Amino acid sequence: MHIGIDVGGTNTDAVLVDGRRVLATAKVETTLDVTSGIVLAIQKLQITRAFRPEDIRAVMIGTTHFVNALADGTGLARTAAVRLGLPATGALPPFVDWPDGLRDAIGGHAYLCHGGHEYDGRVISPLNEDELRGVARDIADQGVRSVAISSVFSLVNSDFERQAAEILTAEVPGLMVSFSHEIGRIGLLERENATIVNAALREPAEQIADGLVASLTSYGIHAPVYLSQNDGTLMDLEYARCYPVATFASGPTNSMRGGAFLSGLDECVVVDVGGTTTDIGVLHNGFPREAPSEVSIGGVRTNFRMPDVTSLPLGGGSVVRGDVIGPDSVGRLLSRKALVFGGDTLTVTDLAVAAGRADIGDAGRVAHVDRSLASTVLKRIAGRVAGVVDRMRTSPEPLPVVLVGGGSVLLPDELDGVTTIVRPYQHDVANAIGAAIAQVGGEVDRVFPVDARRRDETLDAAQQEAVDKAVAAGARADTVRIVEVQEIPLAYLPGNASRIRARAVGDLAFEDVARRARA
Amino acid sequence: MTWCRSPVSLSGMRLITPDDVDRLAVGVIMLGSGGGGGEQDVHVVTTMLRHAIRTNGPVRVLDVEEIDPDALGVRAGLIGAPTVMIEKLPSGNEAAEALRAVRPEGEPPVSAVIGWEIGGCNGLFPLLLAAQLGLPYVDVDGMGRAFPRIDQTTYDAAGLPITPLAITEPSGNRALLDSSAIEKLARTVMVDFGGWAMMVARPLRIGDAAKAGIPGTLARALELGGIWASPQESHGTRGRAEASGGFLVARGKVVEVWRESTGEFPRGTVAVRRLDEDDSYVRLEMQGEYLVVLADGEPLVTTPDLICCLDAESGRAIGTERLSYGTVIDIVALPAPPQWVRPRMLGRVDPRAFGYDLDYLPFGQS
Hints:
Low-confidence stretches of chain B: none
Number of domains of chain B: 2
Low-confidence stretches of chain A: 512-519
Oligomer: heterodimer
Number of domains of chain A: 4
CATH superfamily of the largest domain in chain B: CV3147-like domain
Number of strands of chain A: 23
Number of strands of chain B: 18
CATH class of the largest domain in chain A: Alpha Beta
Largest sheet of chain B: 9 strands, mixed
Distance between the termini of chain B: 18 Å
CATH architecture of the largest domain in chain A: 3-Layer(aba) Sandwich
Helix content of chain B: 25-40%
Mean pLDDT of chain A: 88
């Protein structure tokens, strides 16, 4: 048995799963500290279906808690960026495109040093140990506790990043190191930015990870803990302590994957109506498509890709003023603030009850609400959702729509232009199910020199590397398969280099929970 | 129809300030016709340009008539893969170093920077050089869009010299090249230099550049930037395309992308299933740029006219390297600069110049 948990802005959902069978579900309010809500959800599972804590073999958690510290700006570590690449890259030093506030909040210490590789593996300039020892002394003087190391083409050769880390940590004991080659893709500025954000989050991540372990342990669960990453695959908690940034966009992917799993549809549109937002995404082969462009975190450009999900500021907790919906939501306070729960705020949920579409809370408390207003507003919501569904469709053929999430009662059984609407059983915990069924992945994305006569060998090598990474991350070797491989010959380079991207996923190996040394 | 529909003529807009950079970036990406570097590549150059303008002041932009025709203008541009440049970032001194190498002894100093290739990253590098040197930018370039070869310019068609050509890279390697087969030599050196390099060609008399080149392309980039940088919801793609003097060719989903890397440059074919018509497909042929759009084997748009693919949802341009299966795109055609659409000129840039057995199709005659 294992447990899947999704911590949303409004609710914390949990499911108890055996293989692919869902044994119990639970939904509680998200708590400010996150962890006590998780414990409450597990307790609720226990009430629905008793289980022995020692029988739980894994806990999968989807939460954006690790990166919330970035929005608060509190608890962030004093961070330095050390880049290896001189004399190249000097025109754009680290932090060059950051918002001033966030840069100042973490100190903004930037160091440009020698190092780096060419795309074909040649050295740009050798590491300069004296230079790095000077950086180490300065870092220590500035009180920096966490450092982001990035080297040009470290995805081709990561030796310089590791060697620089050895020099720095020898001089500054206890210094936390984040490597760019562990985080991102080609594109030095964006990869470095993500690495710096990660470095700044290391201290809060430690606290959150400790809190999660402590709360599960107090409940008697000693199973390994995994966290959902942005692409819907899992990483173990020890890795999340080092690379918290990889969890920041896990929410939408989990509900999309959970919706596909529950409905048994691999090709569909999933509409997830939560308390604050409605997320709409298209699934192909059971996975959400990746958005074509990069995302920024807290105003910082990164080269993370998000699932191609459109988010509308509409949910069960959206506040209604006159006939205006939101965009603000009562969020996790829905069960106190909404009228039907005895609160004083008119929310979309109240309108759904007034219109007779939902049976939640005390319908008597919304008896005074104008029914025609209620149905007009709900119709408008349905229209906005239908519009997005129509735009996201990738072919003229009708695509089934799967409605999931606690707020999906707001939507009618018919949407314009949609022939099939599915509301799967247990849809209200689709995101927790998405976390519970998540797999383990490995990815390769870099420039490979390609000799035309040995092209297949190069492609095979890239795919094998992705498979090896998935296994190293905890996938069962016999279940790992390549889900994506893409070779893009570089424009304007005469036929000798390609950007190759390969992604492999496999089932989590429960038996093999031995910690591995990844960092 | 004039090529630049509202000849902003830069009157009242004679300075490029940090506030203009984002709009300009959108414009040069549109003029890239899918090539010359995409959004992430251009971000590197816009960040450098903004920094240079903040440090050294705005770039003065002059129309070709506004400067002594005997003054010398210098052009700069990136050769190689923008995808490599976004990893091995510039030192920032590449173009200035190259310029020192190409200035012939005894000739007067250069008075201005001129354009080489307005499409993509190379639309911005000359402005960066102008900002760094404190020189004005004269609004003329040799392509009016992006092309893969450094000699696919109206300057070369008019016989203006391109050599000696200096080529530099961020680690400090530099070479001064002179050859009648400069394209091949420069590309060989560029690969050895690590996948991208900066080039500066022998300075030209501004009078010659004005006569042989394509004036007004920076104004055109600003015009397009103004049209395409506004939020997608406010105007549809069709409206924007028409406001740009072009048209919406098709909306469809990418159902197949086929790429190969044999031959001089990578090339590819894209199948797009139309969403605006039942059971109908269009085919895109691409190399560095989008070059031809066909339906049922018949051309709809051909190079040198411009072909832009935009994400139908966000309205952002998608370059040839980024186009992937499943994306819903709007294909937009924009007219080539009239300088290319002449019998004597077309041979350098028409479909046959790229190896397709097709004649140029006059714009909008599909």
